[in-house]
Amino acid sequence: MQKKIFWLLLIAVSVLLDVTMSFLWATILTLPAVVLCWWIVYRSGWISD
């Protein structure tokens, strides 16, 4: 379930970047988006050990 939430969040952020930014900036901001999505999922407790 945690992976699904991460991927859904990443897809939503990626689509938002693609719509609002140019291709170059959306490509550059992909790695920070991945880190941000992982951090949100991790800090919210959706990842259980």
**Uncertain runs:** none
> Biggest sheet, in brief?
none
Distance between the termini: 13 Å
The helix fraction, in percent, is over 70%
Mean pLDDT, rounded to whole units? Answer: 85
Can you describe what's shown?
- The protein is mainly alpha-helical and 49 residues long.
- The protein has 3 helices and no strands.
- Helix 1 packs antiparallel against helix 3.
- The longest helix is centred in the first third of the chain and has 19 residues.
- It is elongated and about 35 Å long.
Concise structural overview:
By secondary structure, the protein is mainly alpha-helical. It contains three helices and no strands. The radius of gyration is 12 Å and the shape is elongated.
Give short descriptive properties of this protein:
single chain; 49 residues; mainly alpha; 3 helices; 0% strand
Layout of strands and helices, then pairs:
Layout: H1 2-20, H2 23-28, H3 30-43
Helix pairs in contact: 1-3
